[in-house]
Amino acid sequence: MTDWVLRLIDAGGYWGIFALMVLENLFPPIPSELIMGIGGIRVGQGRMDMGLLLLAGTLGTTLGNYAWYLVGRLLGFERLRPLVDRFGRWLTMEWRDVEALDRIFMRYGQIAVFVFRFMPVFRTMISLPAGLFRMGHIPFLLWTMAGALIWNIILAGAGYVLGYNFRDIDTWIGPLATATVAIAAIAYLYRLATWRPRGQG
């Protein structure tokens, strides 16, 4: 994956960074760590400007997340009810659970959107409930941009400092993301096996 990302960045410059960061948030297996890290390397080589790199990466991240937010917004909170009623067993939740999540998200949603920007895999997933639970467009965009900017500064800064050694990050990003997904899958299977509707003992 490293060579493919390198070619696109070198061919497209800032537009390549922007496009890759949009794709990274639509298809999470593409690692932002690698994209912005290589961008940082290019800054160290004098081939990119750090400010423009961060602008392209942050706008790409925000646009990719906004797409998932709009999907949630279009689906809508009330349209969830038939799905929950029908597939509640597989979702391991009842409608009262969704209502509780709605209350929690309305209170802490902005913090969640910001904090989840620093978590592998889940940083994109948080955009869907943000739309479902009707978080405002402007707050969502602002908190997403704030979290993305900080995360991109860290990644690009690491690439700038570490140079070509940063390319080795691809060898452990993949296993880390896989482990995160595996843990989430195990947690879901355990909840699925132990979950009972409140009316049952």
UniProtKB/TrEMBL annotation:
It is a multi-pass membrane protein. This is Membrane protein DedA with SNARE-associated domain. It comes from the Bacteria. The keyword Cell membrane applies. Residues 30-160 form the VTT domain. The chain crosses the membrane at residues 12-30, 51-71, 111-133, 140-160, 172-190. It comes from Sphingobium fontiphilum. Pfam families: VTT_dom (PF09335). PANTHER family: ALKALINE PHOSPHATASE LIKE PROTEIN (PTHR42709), UNDECAPRENYL PHOSPHATE TRANSPORTER A (PTHR42709:SF6). GO terms for cellular component: plasma membrane. The keyword Ubl conjugation does not apply. It is found in: Cell membrane. Keywords: Cell membrane, Membrane, Transmembrane, Transmembrane helix.
